[in-house]
UniProtKB/TrEMBL annotation:
Catalyzes the oxidation of 5,10-methylenetetrahydrofolate to 5,10-methenyltetrahydrofolate and then the hydrolysis of 5,10-methenyltetrahydrofolate to 10-formyltetrahydrofolate. NADP(+) binds at residues 164-166, 234. It comes from the Bacteria. Keywords: Amino-acid biosynthesis, Histidine biosynthesis, Hydrolase, Methionine biosynthesis, Multifunctional enzyme, NADP, One-carbon metabolism, Oxidoreductase, Purine biosynthesis. SUPFAM superfamilies: Aminoacid dehydrogenase-like, N-terminal domain (SSF53223), NAD(P)-binding Rossmann-fold domains (SSF51735). Its EC number is 1.5.1.5, 3.5.4.9. The keyword Amino-acid biosynthesis applies. GO terms for molecular function: methenyltetrahydrofolate cyclohydrolase activity; methylenetetrahydrofolate dehydrogenase (NADP+) activity. This is Bifunctional protein FolD. Pathway: One-carbon metabolism; tetrahydrofolate interconversion.
């Protein structure tokens, strides 16, 4: 059994990006600039955005955090987005989700310039991804592909089962794993809350990508020997014995499933660290895109 170490691979990617930025600076070129917009004071969102800013500092990117109050109107947020769209210094930006209830999330994501949409959420970029065109891939799916690639996990001709159908992970992963090329060329089954006899499906899978958000959902009896497990789930489970009062748990019963798996991602330290690394990679791609257009 091999651990797919997202912490190690994400550090490798950050080091590679930092080397690229060093070369840019030596040539007197503009370095990538990532902006993050956060509305409100959600603790998890603030922590996540803070980690993105620190990651930018580590690789030598410029970064800007735009903080807006919880009472910000949809019009005010859209005005800020249009301002970022028009700012030539900003290569890419993200809108941290979730947004307050007075704001239409879909409308906001649609307003982002697709060339600066480093989250890969704009319908134009999602459509390009579905058509195998060059574009920004959402950071978490992009990170999963990179893990499979760097550990040389065979995907061609394999049966991949995706648990979950969200627009952020499940839906894009089902498209990407079935695309031509590597990682890809697998036969994909998408399962969700209305799927019947899910154990019958997962027990036939060569690769399982679980993005359900239900702690320890996938049990050892639901998988076959030598399965590849990608656990995207991350849930805080109360635990009085833990220093913080909770533990971070994935969708997979790691202790027992890992005994049957050929490759498996841990939680934490698997897919999570890859997400920020690939956001940086998308920002690097956005900077190159803008340079080519100049």
């Amino acid at each position: 059994m091999t651990i797919l170490d997202g912490k190690k691979i994400s550090n490798d990617i950050k080091n590679e990006i930092a080397d690229e930025v060093t070369k840019m600076k030596a040539k007197g070129e503009k370095v990538p600039h990532l902006a993050a917009v956060i509305v409100g004071n959600d603790g998890a969102s603030l922590t996540y955005v803070g980690s993105k800013v620190r990651a930018c500092e580590r690789v030598g990117f410029e970064s800007t955090m735009v903080r807006l109050s919880n009472t910000t109107s949809e019009i005010e947020l859209l005005d800020k987005i249009y301002e970022l769209n028009d700012n030539p210094d900003i290569d890419g930006f993200i809108i941290q989700l979730p947004l307050p209830p007075q704001i239409n999330t879909q409308k906001v994501l649609m307003a982002v310039d697709p060339d600066k949409d480093v989250d890969g959420f704009h319908p134009m970029n999602f459509g390009k991804m579905a058509l195998d065109m060059s574009t920004f891939i959402p950071a978490t799916p992009f990170g999963i592909l990179e893990l499979l690639d760097r550990y040389n996990v065979e995907t061609k001709g394999k049966h991949t089962v995706v648990i979950g159908r969200s627009h952020i992970v499940g839906r894009p992963m089902s498209i990407l794993m079935g695309r031509r090329g590597f990682p890809g060329n697998s036969t994909v089954t998408v399962t969700h809350s209305h799927t019947k006899n899910i154990t019958q499906i997962t027990s036939q899978a060569d690769i399982i990508i679980s993005a359900l958000g239900v702690p320890n959902f996938l049990k050892a009896e639901m998988v076959k020997d030598d399965v590849v497990i990608i656990d995207v789930g991350i849930t805080r489970v109360p635990d009085d014995n833990a220093p913080k009062g909770y533990i971070i748990t994935g969708d997979v019963d790691f202790e027992n499933v890992s005994k049957k798996a050929s490759f498996i991602t841990p939680v934490p330290g698997g897919v999570g660290p890859m997400t920020i690394a690939m956001l940086l990679k998308n920002t690097l791609l956005a900077r190159e895109l803008h340079r080519q257009k100049q």
